[in-house]
Design brief:
318 residues; alpha/beta; Rossmann fold; 14 helices
């Protein structure tokens, strides 16, 4: 009996120590990558948004595991001389709080960002999304065609794929194993795993120097962010399955750009099919380019944005 009591005490002390470590690591991550924009209330929900530049408004929506710093690191400054850039943190990521305990659906995110645009006084905006953020952009176009004047889709998942969730995502999204894994990751940040993940995301191109520090990968390892991200990714395939039959409804100008060497969101499965699903879509195919062209091929992405403006002609403050 004594050994059992000793074991329980040992486990309790270990868990408390891990909780303390996790909290300290999360505080350090937020200190290293603080709020860079401002928090805006949208119908009772908080949104972290960074607004820069002048000209027609374009909302920039980041992908899975990221935050708005991924958009403000290079892309936003590259176009802020002629566009008003509105970079956002998606729910549960960065400094936008989660929506509920089950992750935020594409519809909930579309509603939130449409409300943000109108809160900022815009009747029409462009929406740019990268990776998961592109799926949010597509949902905004379907649900708010009166608001969205045009889309830019970068490396966007848009069609149903055959493979399932990775083992890590399955464990993280599980209500029993998830909290345990998230605590371990937050308490003992797996730097090698993070570095290897970045290499995979950028391949075959190299990870930009200081990218991890600039984008604040420590924010991704917070427990609340791990949970939100895992639940959103776990639900994405079925949400896309429901959107596919509606792509014919999208009538605004759409620009898509995708690399042929993208192993995260393969071009052949997604944008190549989307080219036949949305009327008038213009697709830019980048040969031998991976998942992150807004960093590795910035000029190509900027050219696509400028072409959207030429096609849609949105005026400042419209």
């Amino acid at each position: 009996m004594k050994w059992l009591i000793s074991f329980i005490i040992f486990v309790a002390i270990t868990v408390l120590w891990m909780i303390y470590r996790a909290e300290q690591n999360e505080i350090s991550a937020e200190s290293a990558s603080p709020i860079s924009g401002r928090i805006i209330d949208v119908d009772g929900r908080k949104v972290h948004v960074k607004i820069d530049g002048t000209g027609p408004p374009i909302m920039l929506i980041h992908g899975a595991s990221g935050n708005l710093r991924d958009m403000t690191m290079g892309l936003a400054p590259a176009i802020s001389d002629r566009f008003t850039t509105i970079a956002v943190d998606r729910p549960g990521l960065g400094y936008t709080p989660p929506i509920g305990n089950k992750g935020a659906t594409l519809k909930q995110q579309a509603d939130l960002f449409a409300g943000l645009a109108r809160k900022l006084g815009y009747d029409k905006i462009y929406v740019l999304g990268q990776s998961y953020g592109g799926a949010v952009a597509l949902k905004m176009a379907l649900e708010y065609p009166d608001l969205v004047a045009g889309l830019v889709l970068i490396s966007t998942p848009s069609n149903v794929w055959d493979t399932g969730l990775s083992t890590l995502y399955k464990i993280n999204a599980n209500p029993i194993s998830g909290p345990i894994l998230r605590l371990i990751v937050a308490a003992f940040p797996p730097k090698k795993l993070v570095d290897d993940s970045l290499v995979e995301i950028f391949a075959p191109q190299l990870v930009p120097e200081n990218y991890a520090d600039m984008v604040g990968t420590g924010l991704t390892l917070r427990q609340v962010t791990q949970k939100s991200n895992a639940l959103q990714v776990a639900a994405l395939k079925e949400e896309i399955r429901a959107m596919v039959p509606r792509y014919g409804e999208i009538m605004m100008p759409v620009e898509a750009i995708h690399g042929t060497k993208d192993i995260i969101v393969p071009y052949e499965i997604h944008t190549k099919k989307l080219a036949h699903q949305i009327k008038g879509i213009e697709v830019t195919v980048l040969q031998n380019v991976g998942h992150m062209p807004h960093h590795t091929n910035l000029k190509d992405v900027v050219a696509v944005i400028d072409r959207l403006q030429q096609r849609a002609g949105l005026k400042t403050g419209q």
